[in-house]
Amino acid sequence: MAETPLARAAKLFLMRPEDDVARLRLYEVLSGAELVLPLADEVEGEDVTPETMEVGGVPHVVAHDSVSAFAGGTPRPTATLSGLALAQMLEGQGAGVVLHLEGMVDPLVIAPNSLDWLARNLAAGPSRVEARPVALHPPKGLPTSLLTTLDRRLAQGEGLATAAWLAAVDWSDGSRGHLLAFVDVRSGAEEPLAAGINAAVALSGVEDVRLDVTFLNQGDPALERLARVGLRFDLEDPTEIAKGPPRLR
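Structure tokens predicted for SseB family protein (249 residues):
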């Protein structure tokens, strides 16, 4: 199976453990990654008990970045949740994570204080604003590192919307920033998409960047304005795009 983005971020961090950029990238990718947790018991209702192991006398939850780790083995109960959700679940409990990554022999051990830091820094989540956009411009001035992070985050959102548009914006309150508009978002996906973009910005290492998120439907007049100046990201899941009629010979 292909190496996961989380495995790539972990390898970069292990090569440069003192590099703040590498560490922040690992936290950012971890926060949005889907982790698979083997369970100690069968699921009963909404309560789950993840498998744990002791590392240095400290309990650590066992997690994997891919379901391929369980392929061909004896079926067992598992739970899937994001890295951020796991960090929030374990915050303050003094438990870390032993993370088994695709293509890596040794697991990555994430200490309890690292999980607490991640949960605290993303605890607030995105905030709501009421300002109205008065002018849109081509996106300008965003660091390449942040654009790369956004591109990776948006790739994780494939199938949750048809597209996203990024543009610079002047707001009615006199402030300026950038706007990311999701188009035709699947019901219930607004909050996780907004939270993902908030995490991407918060953990990008870039300061003084304002990036607001909005949700539009196809046919909204604002989309025509965005299409003239914005940068488009396609989010449709290629496996779900309907095939056209067969060609006649």
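The radius of gyration is 20 Å.
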